[in-house]
Structures are given as C-alpha cells and as structure tokens.
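Section 5.1 Outputs to date
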Amino acid sequence: MLLETESILSIIEEFEKGKPIVMPIYPSAVYEFLKEEEELNIIWRKETGYRYGRWSNPTVRALEKKMAQMERCEDGLCFSSGMGGITATLFAFLSEGGKMLIIKEVYGDTLSFVREFLPRCGVEIYVHSIEERDEIDRRIDEGLDLLYLESPTNPTLRVIDIKNITMKAKAKGIKVVVDNTFATPINQKPRLFGADVIVHSATKYLGGHNDTMGGIVVGSREDISKIWVIRRLFGNLMSPFDAYLILRGIKTLALRVEKQNESAMKLAKWLEKHPKIRKVFYPGLESHPDYEIAKAQMRGFGGMIAFDIDTNADGAAYFMDSLKLIRKAPSLGSVESIATRPAFTSHRNLSKEEKERLGITETLIRLSVGIENVEDLKEDIDRALKDV
C-alpha cells in the first residue's frame, strides 16, 4: 500500500475488554457500510443506524435517550438551540389552514416566531394570557391543531395547571407542547400530566455551566419521528461536543437544581420583606397567584425569581450596574447567579402595553439563582439596592 493511501485510512479501536464510563465524542460526519443494502435500509428507515452527520450522531443519540428517560417519554431529538427544537416541533405539526393557541407569557423569541412567521405559512394564531381562562377554553372547544404552553413562564413565573388544560385539549384531539426549561425534569414532568411533546433549552439548566448551547425535544416515537424529518431537512442537529457537555451537565442536574430550589426560596422570602422591593414573583411563595397549582404539580419551585424594584427605569439600571457577585447576562440556569431586565432583553419585542399587562415593567429584574452561598447573594443585592 502506498503512503498516500495509507495516510487516509482510519484505525478505529475496538474495546475488547472494558468500556468507557463517559460517552465518547464521535465527530465523524459520515459512516461507511460494508453492504449497500445496510445503507438503503437506514435511508428508508427500515433499520436504525448512522449514515450522515446531519441525520444523527452516536454522542447526540446518547443524550436523546437520556432526556427521553428523564422526562418519561419514548424518544427524543437534540437541536443546535432551544429555538431550533421549538421551531422544528411547530413545523412538524402545523401546516396551511392549521390553528394554534399559544399563551402570551412565554419566552419572547418563541412568541415572536409564532406571530411573525407562522401566519406566512397560513397558520391561524391565537394568543391569550394565562388569565384569559374562558377564552382559552373556548378556543379549545372550537378546535385547534396545537396548544403551546410554558410553565413556569418567563419571566413572571406563572404556573399553568398542565393536567387540567391538557385533559380538555386531548379530549378534542389537540396536540399539547410544553416548554419545561424553567422547571427541568427534576421539578416537573409534563408527560405525567398528559403533555404530548416537551421542549427544553438545554443551554440553561441541563448544561448548567454557560459553556454549551442546544435544544431537546421529547415525546412519543410517532411524534418524534415527524419532528426528525424537519430536523433532517433544516439541518440543525446538535454538535457532538455540545451533546457531550450537556450529558456531563446532566450528571449534576439534580444536585444543582435542589440547591437552587433551596436558595431561591430563601431569597424570595427575604426579598418579599425588603423595603425597596414592590413585588416578588416566585411560585413557592404563598402570595403567588399560582402557589396551590405549583405545590401540587411541582416537586420543587425552581431557581428562578423575578422582583420589581420600587424605583424608576434609571434606578433599576443603576441597581443592575451595582451588582458585583451576580452576573449580568442574557441567560439562566447555570451555576452562576445571573440577572437581567426582561423588558429590555428577552421580551424587548413586545409592545409597552403588552409588557404592562404581563407585569414586565422596566423595573422588573429576573434572577436566575446559582449555587453560591445564599448569604453572599443577599449581601450583593442589598448593597446594590442601597442607593436606588
């Protein structure tokens, strides 16, 4: 064999004894077949396997199986971002002439996509606040193709009675999708309440360290199969390295979330008594409008808090700039505590009137509680509030 040929031949080591504890990263973009029939069976989905990196990947597949297991679903799919998973799911179940209802209290970019792009595809969109229970029930009774929920919501932490609303929707044959990013499968499993498809921004709690990006969708094999076709055509599969990092993050997910649940509860109670705070939004507080639902539906109340400072927009900006320990960044769910002002970041595209109706004021702070000592977090917040 000549050197030019020898240099390009890969040597794939087989594990004769023992196997890795950590799932390896498989960066291969293509996979070879000893017989053409094997490849054709995968193309026509008669058999499972790997053929091309845009279709699937072994490292990514390990994460898909792990998340399906954690959410008590049959199968899952990974995407390059949370929005990649959300948009593929919607395209899989909606087409021209379809009808969809989405609650208004969802992640800002989700709502923007639904409002701006789906109508171009001939999909009729209904947007209702969680408070408009009668309108939501009426739309369900009239018939929909898909109902999109998020619980707890971003950023005011409203909690939807998933079981109640899903039972009504399922009786009408409506597909129910739930964004479970804020709760994580540690605090809530929507599938147990009847939801069809559960979506996650894996960038947040699942990864947990601000060093990776991805989205995950889980559900029945039939539903996931439909979404897989969209992912294959759109080409937004998660990278093997991101899947590896998220798999590593999931190993400490329960420990992190339990610590964040505990710290967030302590902070929420402390903030509720602070003289410079108008209102605290946290489902674990008895003052929260959905406290009873959250107590019945969630194992823990989560690591997200929102609070409205008794000041003006300039005062809230000064508060943000005065934080030292708590990071200012547009994400959440990591080991570091992170603060942002949703009116200017995640929900900037909503009109002023819409923001006001949803309680997203210019003085509202969304705090993602990390795993730092809670007393240090209190000290940082208290000091930043002193001159506001």
